[in-house]
Amino acid sequence: MTLTDNVDSTTTEQYQRLLSVLEVTKELAAERSFERLMGLIVRRACEALDCQRSSLFLYDQDTDELYTRWVTKLEIDEIRLPSSKGVVGVAVNERQAVFVDDPYAHPKFDPSFDRATGFRTRNIVCMPLVSWSDGRLLGVLQLLNKPSGVFSPWERELINAFAAHAAIAVERAILTEHYRQKTRIEIELDAAREIQSGFFPHELPRPPGYELAAFHQPADATGGDYYDAIPLAGGRLGLVMADVSGHGLGPSLLMATMRAMLRGILPRESRPDRVLSELGEALTPDLSPETIDPRSRRFRFITVLYGTLDPTEHIFHYANAGHGPLTLHFAAATGQIRNLVDDPAHGAPLGIIKEPFELCAPVPLASGDLLVLGTDGVVEARRGNEMFGMERIGELLRRHHREPLEKLVDYLIAASKEFHEGPPADDLTLLVARRGH
Q: Using the 8-state DSSP alphabet, how is residue 347 labeled?
């Protein structure tokens, strides 16, 4: 064979390898499935760059780890390691391809995977995949065991070109997957919001001689607040105000559970102390941290005020499971305000301890009197270190208690929102009942 023949042979091989890489880049650009794209990169890297095995590690920014499920002929379900560990860690640190001709002599090489799988690593190439848009690390492509053991300068350029195209494909796939997840979450949250909206009364009852008005706005797509007005036997009306600790999807699920249990109890038992005692007995085991998440020591609890309004006797009988501070009786004749939280018979929130509840002192309602039940989001609106507070609510009630009831509720909510700086920090819920003249 002449020197010219050898040159022609080398040139032809390089040309074929270059065509192979170009074909791969077209495949990478066409693939839309995240999982299939990751698998395609590792398979075609072996073929185009003439190696025995390859693996694609993605970077987990939250844990500063590299992880992979995409390995040719993987004997292990998943590999996860700190981003600074091993030869891949060198590529991460140097942000350039690392070529190791004798891995067992390299101080960063970890032979434990070879021992676990029976595979023998003879040489390694690790190529960091870096975002072209902002330079952040996306992952590392690792190639093992090139038959000749040595990469020529031309092959190293080819590897860098492949890595650049792979990085573009990986970044596009990650962004697409994030968009899909965000869209799916938004759809699920929209469905949850629609379902939860059905838990609240579409139209409030109007018992003889009384009017009711309410407002509810969750801080997130869904919330943990709950109010209700439930017609009972004998013309009485059950009034409920509850608040699950926290806000978002988790508390909204607990709220739905509590609502279902409450409505299951009321047809056979409506006396407030007994209702809350049954709710506490049923819910406390489900609110323990071990039940919600065995790894968590965070308690969930539900504050509930439940009472029955008798429009004939004009008395509100109630029991309180740790709910407050917005639980008020406003006396129209004197302008005095009694905070129902102060009643010594109130008990602990559901989920803290199992205990029987007691009836609080009944509330007689004269003409024009108000029952104002709300959650802490209305009271705890903040401006700097200052809280909206109960005093401002009292002033608004004295000033506007003769206004149409829906307008009064609007005044209270608008004042709380206007006072608060920044986005809503908590759900806002208010239920007001007024005896007519």
A: B
In the structure encoding, which two tokens stand for residue 38, read together? 């990751």
List, for residues 199-216, the tens digit of each pLDDT value.
778 899 999 999 999 998
- What three-state secondary structure class fits 100? strand
76: exposed, middle or buried (C-beta count within 10 Å: 0-12, 13-18, 19+)?
A: exposed
- In contact, 210 and 434? CB cutoff 8 Å: yes
pLDDT tens digits for range 50-65: 788 888 888 888 889 8
Helices (H), 31-111: 34-49, 86-94
**Are 364 and 338 a contacting pair, CB within 8 Å?**
no
Strand partners, 128: 140
Q: Residue 174: which of 277, 273, 34 has the closest Cα?
A: 34
> 411 with 213: CB under 8 angstroms?
no
Q: Tell me, what's the pLDDT at 413?
A: 93
Instruction: Note if the bond before 325 is cis, omega within 30 degrees.
Output: yes
Q: In the chain, list all ranges with CATH 3.30.450.40.
A: 3-181
CA distances from 153 to 49, 101, 291, 367 (A): 13, 14, 60, 94
Residue type, position 183, single letter: T
Give the residue from 238, 225, 303 showing the smallest Cα distance to 266. Answer: 238
The pLDDT of residue 36:
80
* Structural fold of domain 3-181: Beta-Lactamase (3.30.450)
Residues of the chain with CATH 3.60.40.10: 198-435
CATH architecture observed for domain 198-435: 4-Layer Sandwich (3.60)
How many contiguous H segments (helices) and E segments (strands) does the chain have? 11, 18
For residues 308 and 319, what is the distance between their CA atoms, to the nearest angstrom? Answer: 9
Coil, strand, or helix at residue 115?
Answer: helix
Nearest to 306 by CA among 225, 371, 229, 240: 240
Sign of CA dihedral 79, 81, 86, 89: positive
Q: Tell me: pLDDT of 1 over 50.
A: no
